[in-house]
Amino acid sequence: MDEIAFADARTLVKQIQDKEISSRELLDLFLSRIEKFDGDLNAVVCKRVEYARDLAKRADEAVSKGENWGPLHGLPMTVKDSYNVEGLPTTFGIPQFKDNVVTSNAVAIERLESAGAIVFGKTNIPFNLADIQSFNDIYGTTNNPYDLERTPGGSSGGSAAAVAAGFSPVEMGSDIGGSIRAPAHFCGVFGLKPTWNILPLRGHSVLGSLTPRDISVIGPFARNAQDLELMLEIVAGADDLQFPGWNLSLPKADQKELRDFRVAVWSDESIAPVDSEIIDRIGLVAKIASSGGAKVDFEARPSFSVKESHETYEKLLHAAMSAQVPEEEFLARWEKRQNLDSDDFSDLARLTRNTTLLHREWFTANERRTKLRWEWHEFFKEYDVVLAPVASVCAFSHDQNPKISERLLKVNGEKRPYNDLFFWAGLSCVSYLPSTVLPTGLGNDGLPIGIQVIGAEMQDLKTIRFAQLIDEQLNGFVPPEKYSV
């Protein structure tokens, strides 16, 4: 049953259709694995077992009648806590929402279920989805399946851990600052941060907001690239406000082989130095691409200032993250801002200003972002994808110090600020670019190493195709030893 637990989604659906395994048997397999292994991992935080078993029974009955519910027919899966799933709480890790049991599904969940999926549980997150670790006062800490003393990442840490540990064949997470990509990298699975707003966010909000949040996206996790594409095809597309006048038609990747790709390599940057082992792994992927005939360029860069790009990202990120804070909290921040010295550009001062942006200031930052998007647009006329780090380090030891400024990373033996983690995430986030995380196997410490494959806006399928071609030679997903028995 070990092979079944780590099989890809399309294979499992075919086995259900061919009656090699029933949907109910597959559901019970995942539930039994969670019961056996999740005590230490703490990835899956709530379940709707009877609902799932009833739906699995009906899925099997449909197969017997020759019916097909869709490309995920009878496939059990979990999703991130932040999605509304009927009958389960949506908490965002915030204690006051511990009992926030919802009565309807997010649009993404509706589309997954319409495609035949059986969403049987939800996975862990950090408080308010606001960390690259996954711990909160409701559900506790999620650990990394390759080393329980380390984080699986965040905010979709439970999602990535569940896929890596064989609890779910695919997952759905979300990303505004690396929240899909860092967990995929730390847990050795595939992840997609899609082009902004091509997957509907409605129902991904603890406060019931209907406005898509700037930068924030939802996207899938999987154990191979083809399943990313499958999940993208199912969930992407206009929400009801735009449908049927707005139609999403992502361009198919016309690259058949690696030799059809033009690849830029961006493996390090002084503003956020990268551990040498990750740089070497990016170099390995570049070498595989080059050996396959791809044009590979280690010097190519867009024309913008890296520093200005990151500062723009910081402004827009913090403005988006703080937009719905209670009024008294906003006013307290505003008062702090008024007392800042005009020449104070410390991290705290920048954070204070960025979380209290006036609309005029936000507009200026957004205009700069639009210029960045056009500069990327010009760059991608010459290149198809950019290879870059997901983060400057691999999965690190749990650090729950409430003072973020006191958390430190170790990069090539040197201490670096925790916020370095957001640089490589922000490189594509700020400009709405898609990014596929490609796992490349384990490093010297037995920890996974993933890299970003970044593409032009709306070229999500091109990034997935490149990852698929590389993975055919690398076989980058390696099941964690403890969960492979």
Describe, in short, the structure shown.
This protein folds into 2 domains: about 350 residues, Amidase signature (AS) domain (Amidase signature (AS) enzymes, Alpha-Beta Complex); about 70 residues, no CATH class. About 35% of the residues lie in helices and about 15% in strands. It is built from 15 helices and 15 strands.
Properties at a glance:
Amidase signature (AS) enzymes, three-stranded mixed β-sheet, alpha+beta, 2 domains, single chain, 485 residues, globular, eight-stranded mixed β-sheet
Oligomer: single chain
CATH superfamily of the largest domain: Amidase signature (AS) domain
CATH topology of the largest domain: Amidase signature (AS) enzymes
Determine the mean pLDDT: 97
Order of helices and strands: HHHEHEHEEEHEHEEHEHEHHHHEEEHEEH
Low-confidence stretches: none
Radius of gyration: 21 Å
Largest sheet: 8 strands, mixed
Tally the helices: 15
- Secondary structure class reads alpha+beta
Side by side, the strands of the main sheet go 6-8-7-14-15-11-9-10
Question: What percentage of residues falls in helices of 4 or more residues?
Answer: 25-40%
Total strands: the figure is 15
User: Strand fraction band?
Assistant: 5-15%
| CATH class identity of the largest domain | Alpha Beta
CATH architecture of the largest domain: Alpha-Beta Complex
User: How many domains make up the coordinates?
Assistant: 2
